[in-house]
Amino acid sequence: MKLRLTILDRYIIRKFIGTYFFAILIFIVIVIIFDVSEKIDNFVEKGASLQAIITQYYGNFIPYFMNMFNALFVFISVIFFTSKLASHSEIVAILAGGISFKRLLYPYFISAAIIAFLSLFLNLVVIPPANKVRLEFTDKYIKDRYINTGRNIHFQLSPGNYVYMESFNSWNNSASKFTLETIEGHTITSKLSAESAAWDSTFNGWRLYKYYLRENRAGSQIITSGKQMDTVINLTINDLNKRDNIVEAYNYRELNELIRTQKMRGDKRVIYTQIEKHTRFALPFSAFILTLIGVSLSAKKRKGGIGMNIGFGLLLSFSYILFLRFSQMFVHSGVLPPWIALWVPNMLYAVIGVYFYRIAPK
């Protein structure tokens, strides 16, 4: 089988990529119109400038939205373009001319590779810094300030060093029943307890009130107490005041560092970080699978015409996106590790794609 690009290959690639970006453009315009109508009151009420709305929010919203629904755009493009070829009997003519169905898939997969690499580039390079600006704009002009009112907060700051807070309130960055423990082996060598603690930005540390310190030294206990004490630990208010979706603004290196830190601390929010990391690779790869399904489904001329193929394609693409979201529940429930759970939709739809390929007209 010759893999040199022919006129037909270049035609299919051009039409595929062109339809893909046209579908993105149409959907983005529609989404922005509805989004503006929904958020216009927030923009006016909180005084967002037109320049900030365009450059900081929607300018960074476009690549995020484009990549989030990449599967939908790929499927629509393949279904629409291939259905047109089939309705004009061009697929029949191509196959009758001696080109196998397998060879026909070659330019489609080149197009899918271009889209997959574009999606991966957006995920790893473009979207994280764009999301940082977009989320900052969202917190300032759209959403209310994030308030963490967590209770029974446990963290391991480093091996053998633990912190506990009965409650934390980000309104005033204060904690109640604040405890620091140092454990060596099975022995608590130091335990610092305080009725309350408040973050002090002047020295980037915690100010403890009504503290009680118990230390084990050379087999004897030393107990001290006081009204106020300052301490600096490897835990800041930024660690406590993060929304779960802030990981969308982290690049790949930062995600790995955050996962290591959260695992060491025993932070339950590590699940969100792991989901974000593996989704960035699983989603681009779906372009190949959905392309195979789309071509196999729409290569045959149907009585219902393009409309039936597009309807069925939308159903499958939305089911993939829904299943991708649903698979995250396996991570939250602890049924599957993140790297498996996020690839389950690709595995399942790859099997579906092979089935449709086998029954497609040859």
Structure described in brief:
With 362 residues, this protein is an alpha+beta fold. It has helices at residues 7-45, 50-68, 70-87, 90-96, 101-141, 237-240, 252-265, 270-298, 305-332, 338-341, 344-359; strands spanning 151-158, 161-169, 174-184, 187-200, 205-217, 220-231.
Largest beta-sheet characterization: 6 strands, antiparallel
What is the average of the pLDDT values? Answer: 87
Q: Strand tally, please?
A: 6
Q: Would you list the SSEs in sequence order as H and E?
A: HHHHHEEEEEEHHHHHH
Structural class: alpha+beta
Task: Describe the structure in your own words.
It is a single chain. The protein is α+β, with helices and mostly antiparallel strands and 362 residues long. The chain folds into two domains: 7-143 and 270-359, no CATH class; 151-235, no CATH class. The protein is 60% helix and 19% strand. The chain is built from eleven helices and six strands. A six-stranded antiparallel β-sheet has the order 1-2-3-4-5-6, with no helix packed on it. The longest helix is centred in the middle third of the chain and has 41 residues, at 101-141. It is elongated. The mean pLDDT is 87.
